[in-house]
Amino acid sequence: MIDLIRRQIELLKLLSKQREYKPASFFSKSLDVSTKTIYTDITYLQSEVEKYKVDLVRAPRIGIRLEGEKENIQHMLRDLQKDNLSEDEKYTPEYRRLWILKKVLIDCETITLESVSKEFLVSKTSLYQDIAVINKSIESQSDVKLEVGECGICILGEEIEIQNAVNNYLLSESKEEMFSDFTHKLGNFFELDVIKAVSDLILNDFEELTEVLSEYYLKSLLVTLIMQSSRLLKKKHMNEETEISYNNIRYMETYIVANSIAEQLKYQLHITYSNNDMEYLCRQLYAHRVTHHVKHMRTDYEETVRDVIKRMSEIQKLDLTRDKKLYESLLYHLPPMILRLQNNIQIVNPMLDNIKQEYPELFARLSRSKFRSRFHLTEKDKAYAREKGPDTIRSHAKDFIEKRLAPAEIPNDGKQTPMKG
Questions:
Q1: For residue range 173-194, what is the model confidence (pLDDT) as tens digits?
Q2: Helix ranges, 84-178 (H)
């Protein structure tokens, strides 16, 4: 696509977001230009969008609309994003940090401080600051970090931690963006053929399974699968684990979907999946609530959920045991939540900041709570969980609820510390 001026790019973006015909005045007000200018731009853009099998339809006295297959429109917008990135945008710290991560992770190229300094015309001090900002984000939940060595800039960590950490970084940088803008931005980091292959699968082939997901979950799933595919193209496989949990994953009903996705991506991108790669894919699908039956309930958690609701009722002095919607919701959300905790899969609630703003006093008090701040998983705790496995941990939790939470009169209650009882 030839270079377009900023207004024309914004006009195409606006058109792509409209499901119905809109009058020229709608676009002229949004872009602060005359309707004559809008019609001139439409005429100019018509021949450009046709290259993508997209049509700009002008209906007299009705309005203007962009028509075409969803994937063709997305392809066109991704090319616009890539081809028309302004020089100012290219030299921002945000773009520079993404560029460094892309070269190291996706392109697997050897880059040095000297080469990056020449590329962006910045000092090495600025680049050290960039690396520190990246590391502050990706190190917060893992042992992954960028490091400057004799051979250049490299990333340290286990493959599963690297992918999870960078996925979270990309999502944190884009949490305020609309979905269409977010997918366009991915073109600055990943190869377009990988984005297209994964997007087509998730948004079209498996639409019946993903259409119920929130926008944030959909973003997270898209980044996760694109990242894994990109790394597999460079022969970067998941590390071998001591215990393969296919027996658990199969009854979670993600294996059918995962296998179908893997087979199609193998054919389109010429990548291969190891057993560990398949397990990771299954876990991620389940953590994002994408299963063969989306609303499948895990019956082995029924007793635990009932115990939790009973305890909540006692605390709130309100009978919640007859609330069927609460019961089904907990039963649906609890298993993916446990899996995410076990495997350090982070899907941050996009409304969390708004909730904190609504209840600042509550969160301020919680943040100052010495008792609450003592509860976190140490490396020893994580190692114990991996060694014992989910079944043992679940058994311990069930035993704890039955003996320490559920009873009306708890043995030795008040005769031990909360941390060592």
A1: 666 677 777 877 788 889 888 9
A2: 87-90, 93-101, 113-120, 124-138, 159-172
Instruction: Please provide residue 241's backbone torsions phi and psi, each rounded to the nearest 5 degrees.
Output: -105, 160
| Token representation of residue 309 | 């609701």
Take residue 329 and report the two structure tokens written for it.
Answer: 């919701």
* Phi and psi angles of residue 328, each rounded to the nearest 5 degrees, phi first: -65, -35
Which position has the token pair 């499948």? 296
Question: What integer is the mean pLDDT of 323-339?
Answer: 73
Q: What sign does the CA torsion over 303, 309, 315, 319 have?
A: negative
The three-point CA angle 145-366-393 to 5° equals 65
- CB neighbourhood size of 6 (10 A): 10
Q: What is the Cα–Cα distance from 276 to 298, expressed in whole angstroms?
A: 24
**Going by DSSP bridges, is the β-strand pair 145-149/63-67 parallel, antiparallel, or unpaired?**
unpaired
Question: Which residue has tokens 């900023």?
Answer: 6
pLDDT (average), residues 388-404: 74
Tokens of 170: 């990309």
Distance, in Å, from the CA atom of 120 to the CA atom of 228, rounded to the nearest integer, reads 28
Neighbours of 308 (CB within 10 A): 19
Question: What single-letter amino acid sits at 300?
Answer: D
